[in-house]
Amino acid sequence: MVSPGKKAFDLEKVDRCKRLARDLFAGRIFFEEYAEAMMLTSIYANENLMNACINVIPQPLLRRFARFLHDYLEPVDFRPSPTPFLVLNASEREIAEKKEELRPKYIQLYERVTEKARHVQTS
Fold first, then answer.
1. From CA 94, how far away is CA 78, in angstroms rounded?
2. Average pLDDT, the chain
3. CB-based contact 38:57 (threshold 8 Å)
4. Which of 10, 35, 41, 80 is positioned for an S-S bond with 68, CB 3.0–4.6 A?
């Protein structure tokens, strides 16, 4: 059973994803800030929350976000710097291990966003 505190934390993440889009459309943040925050929020989330965050991406942003993920992740083989997920002064070994640990989640995010953008494009 999921605790009420965990449920509230989960809803907060989805609300954050929605708020990021509102901030972007209102001109309070740039697209790159939106995309990086969405990516990190989605990677930090469990599978269901990742899907929920992807589902609240406004359709006009899906293709652009998919392109951002492609340009950001493919050159580093889906192993970007894991520093947002590590404590300061992490060793080279810890950094390498975290990159490997997070790689499947980055691939999953990329594939899901790309697939959703493709469906939006064809519908």
1. 17
2. 89
3. yes
4. 35
